[in-house]
Write a structure and sequence with these properties.
Length: 108
């Protein structure tokens, strides 16, 4: 018997995530315009590094502290979406990063 394939929704989601990971240039603009950066206490971290860590969290569930804090402090302003010139939805990536963190905590 064939192994059960992934549900269509999960496949579509994985494809959407993959496209965004590929499209992101890690320019950091989404971080620069984000109103959550200041309250999260991560303004001293380079924007490029913060988003770079988000991509890591999405891929592996592991990543730097500043990126974890950013992902957890999202207040859904949507400013990042307007700032991105590459059609990426950073707010969606942050929710995928939170999912990555949650999954890696379950595995531990
Ligand atoms: S999501 Fe968009 S704005 Fe943010 S770093 Fe990637 S390319 Fe730049």
């Amino acid at each position: 018997m064939q192994p059960m394939s992934e549900a269509p929704f999960e496949t579509a989601l994985a494809e959407r995530v993959e496209k965004m990971l590929d499209a992101c240039t890690q320019c950091g603009k989404c971080v620069e315009v984000c109103p959550s950066v200041e309250p999260a206490g991560i303004s001293d971290t380079k924007s490029e590094d913060v988003i770079g860590g988000i991509l890591e969290l999405v891929r592996t569930g592991n990543g730097p502290e500043a990126s974890r804090k950013w992902a957890q402090s999202c207040m859904q302003s949507g400013e990042c979406i307007k700032a991105c010139d590459y059609g990426v939805n950073p707010r969606f990536l942050l929710s995928m990063a939170r999912l990555g963190i949650a999954k890696s905590e379950v595995r531990q």
